[in-house]
Design goal:
This protein has 953 residues and is of the alpha+beta class. The chain contains 33 helices and 33 strands. The strands form 7 sheets. Strands 1, 2, 3, 4, 5 and 6 form a 6-stranded antiparallel sheet that branches. Strands 8-7-11-10-9 form a 5-stranded antiparallel sheet, sandwiched between helices. It has a 5-stranded antiparallel sheet with strand order 13-12-16-15-14, with helices on both faces. A hairpin with a 2-residue loop joins strand 20 and strand 21. Helix 2 crosses helix 6, helix 10 packs antiparallel against helix 11 and helix 21 runs antiparallel to helix 22. The chain is rod-shaped and about 195 Å long. The chain starts with a helix and ends with a helix.
């Protein structure tokens, strides 16, 4: 048997067999060593890649939180000078980390940017990441782009909102190379291992290989299909391991590399990080082992099997420990760098153990913000930072956190006990051999205050809208429907909010056609604003005058038709009343202008006829003619008096009277006036207040109103007269022109006649307006009533509808008791006149007639046809008891004449007379308070009374 084995052929076979076995064992062991080395390398590379990825993710999370808080600042939101200063200050504080700080509006226009101020006003809406921001209105991290300064940059945009309305963004730009270097340049795996980062669009953000940074990874990998395969896999957002072969320079030998890749998750995008090492360096550490293994196998075939296994195992253990120690050293170095970033972060950060919630570490920013020392913090648990009412809830939330990133709003409590709102972002991390979580904290006190301010402003604006007395509506220009409206517009038009919400402008417009309304809206859209008046129809069908102030506004990027509707119906009525009052005032001035000459002629006619009656026997046939002359003249005098009463210029003798007594005295006369087929009723009010009025004027009021009612009831009816005390307040006066607040006596005269339409009611108080036939009436009856009432500081209202009769309400001001007492005394005239009177009158016929009238009364008369003659008589020393003079005379008026007479005879008595109206006499300064005055045409009894009063003064 041994010989067989010793046999060369057998030995060769044995040697060959054992050699093959040893070669197999050698190759198997060596391949396992290579696989283990690659696995350990990939694990180490994954550790570095995860640390760098988390660092970059937290960098953007931190800046997203910071920009979100800044976006809610009022100054930066409105981009006023204070906001620009705020942005400049913020940039100066962080310019070591960011290259620019920008505020952009919703259309992509740069509102302001530092430090490149010249970029303000530029539109960047064409940039891909800006379009994504406008479309999604969420935080956006851009792909790498070449800045105008020539460096590769990355932009972070955070949207700015006005309530729910998108108002642009606030953004920072960072140097992508600087960002990558901060987290990637520190990565070293062996001598040739390094990290590189690719953006979502395939741009190499960072790569230590010359000429790769800023280039497309598809370009730099064009000659390496294996590298392209890895690139396609990682740009899908996945993670894994790969190996590829690449030649970095033309003509250089290809190098095989082993790599790991995983995504860096950002707000809207992701980057991919790759950590790669050369295979040659990995396997160079196994060269010695390979040589020794081959030597042992060559020395002994039989012992080599056991020795190789033992040696291989020993070498593997030793190598694993060396590699592990090397990786551990590099990990400690990486942790030191990570700790540096942790400590220097401007935002408060903390690390706590996930199971026990025990605090493990905090940075300096946390110590400054919370007031604890680091030793004090390490004695706390996470729940100690929360107010009592949130401790149970945070315990439950923290227990459910595992692996994923958490974002939320809470409240924290400082050492001094102050509680403030926070925004926290946390995720898992290993720390000191423990499973921990790291949290980044942002104080959102200012943001909360801003939100509260915005909410209060919104509430204030809603209150202004709802409490506006004018209707406010917002209309869609396309459909003319109401988008929004306040309560006042519903109240004006009589709709509920639900009913009005279903309407459009066409449904409430009363005078314009649908086409006209549509044309008006289009015109306002073109012009931007408009003011106009229109008529609107209420829910009950009533027409209202509305003044519209309209303008076009843009709300949430949509043009809307904003209107203020002011109901001016009452204002229109007051304006119409004012125009009516002014028109009647003008007619009154015309009526008063004819009084002088007319009254002079009437004075001659009445005086001459009266004198003739005294000269002719009572049974003479001429007496009848004289009576007709006197009646006609008196009728003409009444017409003149009516004109004067209408114009409120008649000189009257008002007395304190009780209107109930006057109405009772006039009842018989009124019954004869209205006829037997009209039933007259009087309803007096007890305790009626006293008024100051000439009784004759009040009789005129009753007669004219009664006659008007009689003519409105040709087939008979009822005429009611009633009195009462009323108080008129300021609210009533605001809606009725010509009224004054106070106490009034109200006289109501109503009938059951034919009534009047609106057109007739608008003209009934105008002089010479009448609905009767020619020759039936003068049209002065109601005009006289209006004049008397207004002359006595009262006012009159009329209510009438066709077929419903008419109601006239007359309001005369109350006379207080002490005023009434002053007016009570009267002086009875003596039965016969005595004394010498100087009569001054330039009208010859009136001079003769008045002389005869005075002589019949008993006075001695001296005539003067001019002021000069009167002055001559008085200065001659003749006895004169009283001067009766016309007011207006050619050359010199009565006042001037009297002044010259009194310079010689200061005690002389004077009585003025005139056919002009009282206001003209007063305007010319002829008759003042304390002087005696009588109007023409003269009545013998009234003239006698005035002369007696003047002589007795």
């Amino acid at each position: 048997m041994i010989q067989k084995f010793v046999n060369k052929r057998a030995l060769a076979l044995l040697v060959l067999g054992f050699t093959c076995l040893c070669i197999f064992i050698f190759n198997f062991a060596y391949q396992k060593a290579k696989d283990a080395a690659i696995t350990r390398l990939n694990q180490e590379q994954f550790i570095h890649a995860r640390q760098a990825a988390r660092g970059i993710e937290e960098y953007f999370v931190t800046w997203t939180g910071i920009l979100t808080s800044l976006s809610r600042l009022h100054e930066i939101f409105n981009m006023d000078p204070a906001g620009k200063r705020q942005m400049e200050f913020f940039y100066d504080a962080h310019k070591d980390q960011i290259r620019s700080f920008t505020r952009m509006d919703e259309k992509g226009n740069i509102l302001f940017t530092v430090p490149n101020l010249e970029m303000s006003g530029k539109n960047i809406a064409a940039q891909k990441h800006v379009q994504e921001l406008i479309a999604t209105r969420k935080p956006v991290v851009s792909d790498v782009f070449r800045s105008i300064q020539g460096y590769d940059a990355v932009a972070l945009h955070v949207p700015v909102f006005d309530g729910n309305r998108f108002r642009g963004s606030i953004a920072i730009i960072v140097n992508s190379q600087g960002l990558a270097k901060r987290y990637l340049e520190v990565i070293r795996v062996g001598k040739t291992g390094y990290a590189w980062v690719v953006s979502r669009d395939g741009t190499e953000i960072y790569c230590p290989a010359a000429g790769h940074s800023g280039q497309s990874v598809f370009t730099t990998s064009a000659g390496s299909p294996s590298r392209l395969a890895m690139v396609k896999a990682m740009l899908k957002g996945g993670s894994g391991t790969a190996s590829y072969t690449i030649a970095f320079n033309k003509g250089a030998a290809p190098v095989k590399r082993h790599a790991v890749y995983l995504p860096i998750k950002l707000d809207n995008t992701f980057w991919a990080i790759v950590v790669a090492s050369s295979e040659e360096e990995i396997f160079s550490s196994l060269t010695s082992y390979r040589n020794k293994l081959a030597l042992v196998v060559g020395t002994t075939l039989f012992a080599a099997i056991v020795i190789c296994i033992l040696v291989l195992r020993a070498l593997l253990i030793v190598r694993e420990e060396a590699v592990y120690k090397e990786a551990e050293a590099e990990l400690r170095a990486s942790e030191e760098k990570y700790r540096y970033l942790f400590e220097q972060n401007p935002a408060p950060m903390l690390i706590y153990e996930r199971g026990t919630l025990q605090m493990l570490a905090v940075n300096d920013a946390f110590v400054i913000s919370y007031g604890y020392s680091k030793d004090e913090v390490l004695e706390l648990k996470l729940t100690d930072l929360y107010p009592e009412e949130e401790k149970q809830k945070i315990t439950e939330v923290a227990a459910g956190l595992s692996g994923h990133t958490y974002v939320g709003e809470w409240h924290h409590r400082r050492k001094d006990g102050t509680v403030f709102p926070i925004f926290v972002t946390s995720h898992d991390m290993p720390y000191g051999g423990k499973t921990a979580r790291i949290g980044v904290i942002t104080d959102i006190t200012d943001r909360k205050l801003m939100e509260k301010t915005i909410e209060e402003e919104a509430i204030f604006n809603r209150l202004l809208l709802e409490h506006s007395p004018d209707g406010i509506v917002i209309i869609d220009p396309e459909t003319a429907r109401f988008i929004n409206f306040n309560t006042a517009v519903c109240r004006q038009l009589g709709y509920s909010r639900e009913e009005f919400a279903q309407l459009s402008v066409f449904d409430v417009e009363a005078i314009e056609t649908r086409e006209e309304t549509r044309h008006r809206i289009e015109e306002i859209v073109r012009e931007g604003r408009s003011d106009f008046e229109t008529m609107q129809r209420t829910s009950q069908g009533e027409l209202r005058n509305v003044h519209v102030t309209a303008q076009i506004l843009t709300i949430q990027d949509q043009p809307v038709y904003y209107c203020i509707w002011r109901d001016v119906t009452e204002q229109k009525k007051l304006e119409e009343q004012l125009r009516q009052s002014q028109k009647m005032e003008s007619v009154g001035r015309l009526a008063g202008g004819v009084a002088h000459d007319f009254n002079n002629m009437l004075g001659v006619i009445i005086g001459s006829a009266d004198l003739c009656q005294h000269q002719i026997a009572p049974d003479s046939p001429l007496q009848k003619y004289l009576e007709h002359i006197i009646k006609a003249a008196q009728r003409s005098s009444d017409i003149t008096r009516q004109l004067l009463a209408f114009s409120r210029k008649e000189v009257v003798s008002p007395k304190p009277v009780n209107l109930n007594s006057l109405i009772i005295e006039s009842e018989k006369m009124l019954c004869r006036l209205i006829g037997e087929d009209v039933n007259l009723t009087f309803k007096p009010s007890t305790g009626l207040w006293t008024v100051l009025i000439d009784p004759a004027q009040f009789d005129q009021i009753l007669m004219n109103l009664s006659a008007n009612s009689r003519d409105a009831m040709p087939d008979g009816g009822t005429l009611d007269i009633a009195t009462g005390n009323v108080h008129v307040d300021a609210d009533y006066c605001r809606h009725h022109s010509g009224t004054v607040p106070g106490d009034y006596v109200k006289i109501t005269v109503s009938d059951t006649g034919t009534g009047m339409d609106r057109e007739t009611r608008d003209h009934i108080f105008e002089p010479f307006f009448t609905t009767k036939g020619v020759g039936v009436g003068t049209g002065l009856g109601l005009a006289t009533v209006y004049g008397i009432v207004t002359q006595n500081k009262g006012f009159i209202n009329v209510y009438s509808e066709p077929g419903q009769g008419s109601v006239f309400n007359i309001y005369l001001p109350r006379l207080l008791d002490d005023e009434a007492a002053e007016e009570a005394a009267e002086v009875a005239p003596p039965p016969k006149g005595t004394g010498i009177i100087l009569l001054v009158e330039d009208e010859e016929m009136l001079l003769w007639t008045t002389t005869k009238m005075l002589e019949e009364i008993g006075y001695t008369v001296q005539q003067a046809g001019s002021p000069a003659r009167a002055i001559e008589i008085c200065t001659s020393g003749e006895q004169i008891d009283l001067v009766l003079t016309d007011v207006v005379m050619p050359g010199m008026n009565g006042r001037e004449m009297v002044d010259r007479i009194r310079s010689a005879r200061p005690d002389i008595k004077v009585l003025f007379m005139s056919g002009y109206t009282a206001d003209i006499v007063a305007q010319r300064g002829i008759v003042e308070e304390g002087m005696f005055y009588i109007s023409k045409p003269l009545d013998a009894r009234q003239l006698h009374e005035k002369i007696v009063q003047a002589l007795a003064s």
